[in-house]
Amino acid sequence: MLKYIFKNSITSFHLLSRYQISIDKIRNFCIIAHIDHGKSTLADRFLEITGTISKGKHEQYLDKLEVEKERGITVKAQSAAMLYKVDGIEQYLYNLIDTPGHVDFTYEVSRSMRACEGAILLIDATQGIQAQTLSNYILAKKQNLKIIPVINKIDMTSANTETVIQQLVEKFDMNPNEIFKVSAKKGTGVTELLNNIVTLIPPPQDHKELKCFLIDSWYARDKGVVLLMLMKGGILKKGDQILSCAFKKKYDVFEVGIQSPENVPQEKLEPGQVGQQMRPEQEIHLEIPLSKTLAEAGFEQVKPLVYCGIYPEDPDDYAELNKSIFKLALTDPAVIIQKESSAALGNGYRCGFLGVLHMDVFRERLENEYNLSVILTSPSVPYKAILRNGKEVLVENAIMAPDAAVIKHYEQPMAMATIMCPEEYSATIFQLCDARNGRIVDQEKYDKQDRYIFKFPLNEIIQDLFDKIKSATKGYGSLEYEFCGFEKANIVKLVIHLMDDPVDALSFMVPEERAHQLGKKICQRLKDNIPQHLFVVSIQAKVGGKVIAAEKIGSTGKNVTAKCYGGDYTRKKKLLDRQKEGKKRMREVGRVTVRKDTFISVFKDD
Ligand SMILES: Nc1nc2c(ncn2[C@@H]2O[C@H](COP(=O)(O)OP(=O)(O)OP(=O)(O)O)[C@@H](O)[C@H]2O)c(=O)[nH]1
């Protein structure tokens, strides 16, 4: 213990005792809302008013990831401990969790809620109740959280505060006198809200025996694995040994601390506190992603909606990808990871995500935070195969699809999509949606915006609908979607063959009407990218053994050493050496030799 005190400055020694507050003076709460309704801005004001960060210096302080700063959205729930003198009198410890608003990161929200007794439900005064307001409200109710309704952005000229109050009264049966009105940006009403949290949200309970609730985990280069936990009971100190109930493994606690908002080392963590504990890297079991740990701990199993393969661009980077992907998965419980190996792409992973944004953010984090270049195969959705014997099989990967003879029919995942756009773009939106099998379900006018609800096959949404809407509306249109069950559909398995050998990485489950177009596109791209061989290379796209598109690459008819007649050994060796060098960049797929980047070109966007 002495060693530890010497290592830290006097200030941190002073800080050590500041957070040791009795459990009745602790409040754990999260901020929940629809995307962009102002959660991170409100969290900034809280941090400033409580003196946790200095005023005006930071914007969106808790959006720490590069991808969050670049995109201006929260993708990770972040927590911060704040010491606050309520009404300037009595000191409390507020543990705040800022949550993401986008539906792809809902899993982060529900996990955060499990660590709280209350939630601030924030509603944008210019937009009113939106899809995620409703689903977050339902989630919070289910978890018996005390909900504090707060209308934000009341400073805006387009604010409809009274209408939103009315909506809250009608839809959520709220008492109009209990609704707070704030401007998170300007700070109006925020201190009043902070002062009321203490009476509106109850303190956590002490479960007496040592019990920690895992909120988050991540890998820190200097510390190893960091676990962010709510202390449900007991005391945790540096040097303690803990046992994971899920995996029956022992771990040494390397250091404990509190996020306020960065890590402040502590002597111990006590009941009700949200704190970190670190474990050295050699002790971690990277093969156990957080999703699995949470599932073992009784959390709802994540059900991915979008799958893709992730491969290193250079196959020699596989070991690096292996380490990085599990480190990243430590911070993301909603990603499902399975090893996969493909003759065409080498060793990699099949990953499941909650949506395309989730997939895209995961890729960007692998590239930004782990400096890796990866290939993502085109996203696909899981299909349900209804078998003739009455059983159901979820087909997440085309190569796992049951034999066509045993399948009665397929069902495809559907999504309810909300599209908002200025009224002048309505006709374009209808054309776009029609071409993607979207069926209109509902529509309404909202200010000068049109709001449409379409039902789509999920597969149609994940391809490019978002980009197409953005470009067709000069960036003003928006798209949000939510899975809404399976429906019967004509789905076929499209397999690309090279010289009659099926290529595993190029097998796709597709709606029947799209099979020909996709098959043709892939055959053409392979033709453009595969070099000539001594023989004619045949490329075929097949559905159920029937060829639906095909290309041929003519032969060179030449042997590279053929011209080195006679005994000119050095020339022949040089040529063979050059050939060997070239071979390093090539890969064998059946009898065909392809450049390593051939399959990247197939998966690249148009
Ligand atoms: N005028 C005004 N703008 C606000 C207010 N609160 C937030 N904003 C703005 O609204 C936008 C979204 O705010 P954020 O705090 O990022 O919203 P969020 O809910 O955290 O967003 P996600 O985490 O991505 O869901 C930003 O441009 C903010 O500056 C407010 O009270 N008044």
TrEMBL record:
<dbReference type="GO" id="GO:0005739">
    <property type="term" value="C:mitochondrion"/>
</dbReference>
<dbReference type="GO" id="GO:0097177">
    <property type="term" value="F:mitochondrial ribosome binding"/>
</dbReference>
<feature type="binding site">
    <location>
        <begin position="152"/>
        <end position="155"/>
    </location>
    <ligand>
        <name>GTP</name>
    </ligand>
</feature>
<keyword id="KW-0472">Membrane</keyword>
<dbReference type="InterPro" id="IPR031157">
    <property type="entry name" value="G_TR_CS"/>
</dbReference>
<keyword id="KW-0342">GTP-binding</keyword>
<keyword id="KW-0648">Protein biosynthesis</keyword>
<dbReference type="GO" id="GO:0006412">
    <property type="term" value="P:translation"/>
</dbReference>
<dbReference type="InterPro" id="IPR027417">
    <property type="entry name" value="P-loop_NTPase"/>
</dbReference>
<dbReference type="GO" id="GO:0003924">
    <property type="term" value="F:GTPase activity"/>
</dbReference>
<dbReference type="Pfam" id="PF00009">
    <property type="entry name" value="GTP_EFTU"/>
</dbReference>
<comment type="similarity">
    <text>Belongs to the GTP-binding elongation factor family. LepA subfamily.</text>
</comment>
<dbReference type="Pfam" id="PF06421">
    <property type="entry name" value="LepA_C"/>
</dbReference>
<dbReference type="GO" id="GO:0005525">
    <property type="term" value="F:GTP binding"/>
</dbReference>
<feature type="domain" description="Tr-type G">
    <location>
        <begin position="24"/>
        <end position="205"/>
    </location>
</feature>
<dbReference type="InterPro" id="IPR005225">
    <property type="entry name" value="Small_GTP-bd"/>
</dbReference>
<keyword id="KW-0547">Nucleotide-binding</keyword>
<dbReference type="GO" id="GO:0005759">
    <property type="term" value="C:mitochondrial matrix"/>
</dbReference>
<dbReference type="GO" id="GO:0045727">
    <property type="term" value="P:positive regulation of translation"/>
</dbReference>
<feature type="binding site">
    <location>
        <begin position="33"/>
        <end position="40"/>
    </location>
    <ligand>
        <name>GTP</name>
    </ligand>
</feature>
<dbReference type="InterPro" id="IPR038363">
    <property type="entry name" value="LepA_C_sf"/>
</dbReference>
<dbReference type="GO" id="GO:0005743">
    <property type="term" value="C:mitochondrial inner membrane"/>
</dbReference>
<dbReference type="InterPro" id="IPR000640">
    <property type="entry name" value="EFG_V-like"/>
</dbReference>
<dbReference type="InterPro" id="IPR006297">
    <property type="entry name" value="EF-4"/>
</dbReference>
<dbReference type="InterPro" id="IPR000795">
    <property type="entry name" value="T_Tr_GTP-bd_dom"/>
</dbReference>
<comment type="similarity">
    <text>Belongs to the TRAFAC class translation factor GTPase superfamily. Classic translation factor GTPase family. LepA subfamily.</text>
</comment>
<keyword id="KW-0496">Mitochondrion</keyword>
<protein>
    <recommendedName>
        <fullName>Translation factor GUF1 homolog, mitochondrial</fullName>
        <ecNumber>3.6.5.n1</ecNumber>
    </recommendedName>
</protein>
<dbReference type="Pfam" id="PF00679">
    <property type="entry name" value="EFG_C"/>
</dbReference>
<dbReference type="InterPro" id="IPR035647">
    <property type="entry name" value="EFG_III/V"/>
</dbReference>
<keyword id="KW-0999">Mitochondrion inner membrane</keyword>
<dbReference type="InterPro" id="IPR013842">
    <property type="entry name" value="LepA_CTD"/>
</dbReference>
<comment type="function">
    <text>Promotes mitochondrial protein synthesis. May act as a fidelity factor of the translation reaction, by catalyzing a one-codon backward translocation of tRNAs on improperly translocated ribosomes. Binds to mitochondrial ribosomes in a GTP-dependent manner.</text>
</comment>
<feature type="binding site">
    <location>
        <begin position="98"/>
        <end position="102"/>
    </location>
    <ligand>
        <name>GTP</name>
    </ligand>
</feature>
<dbReference type="InterPro" id="IPR009000">
    <property type="entry name" value="Transl_B-barrel_sf"/>
</dbReference>
<keyword id="KW-0378">Hydrolase</keyword>
